[in-house]
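For reproducibility, we list the full input for the cytidine-5'-monophosphate complex.
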Amino acid sequence: MGRDVIVALDFSSAEQVYSFLDKFTGRKPFVKIGMELFYAEGPAIVKEIKARGHKIFLDLKLHDIPNTVKKAMSVLSGLDVDITNLHAGGTVRMMEAAIEGLTREDGTRPLLIAVTQLTSTDQKAMENDLLIKEPIADVVMHYASNAKKAGLDGVVCSPLEAEKVHGCCGKEFLTVTPGVRFADGDIGDQKRVMTPEQAKLIGSDYIVVGRPITAAEDPVAAYERCVREFVD
Ligand code: C5P
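The corresponding predicted structure, in tokenized form, follows.
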């Protein structure tokens, strides 16, 4: 899988999702299913979207004891998604257990990426709430290295961190970056954003784009603009 645009399906019902996806005649965008949609509709929505021919990033951010994560990942690997994820804060041992659970009998598995520090966590919250005193950029790189050590394929990170992650973990280590906005678009609640073109220049492997596409007057045109700027 090469560089691609992943559309965040941040909807709360299957009905909304299908009416959105039905606009894409001929195109099959790579999509992200998050907690809201998965908890509302269950595994059936993953199977249905897969059957329609879309690649899927299942964004459930697992974080629990290694044995529980291993078993949960084993269930997720049966859903045949293309990418799934967990929290690097669960430790190297938890990430290794996740890989074991995700790997099928024939040796294949979906790509597994780690969330480092959520972009909603800032230095102050990390120090006060988590008692982590190091600079947040160092913590992100440390978690990314842990993910690599555990055998994961990459991380979810801010586009501003993608270059540094590649520097520390290698060019092959995937960077999946949300926080993308068109140069002439609304920023919304995202704080640090990049355009698809900038994300391409700094070497993001995948951009995750929600509202600039889902809330656009013409979502297909917005998606195609993203692809033009980021992939072509
Ligand atoms: O609508 P918007 O483009 O901001 O959506 C971005 C998507 O990426 C959402 O599904 C959001 O939950 C997700 N995300 C994010 N920032 C992170 C991790 C995930 O915006 N650090």
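The first helix runs from residue 14 to 21. The chain has a mean pLDDT of 95. Both points were considered when choosing residues for closer inspection.
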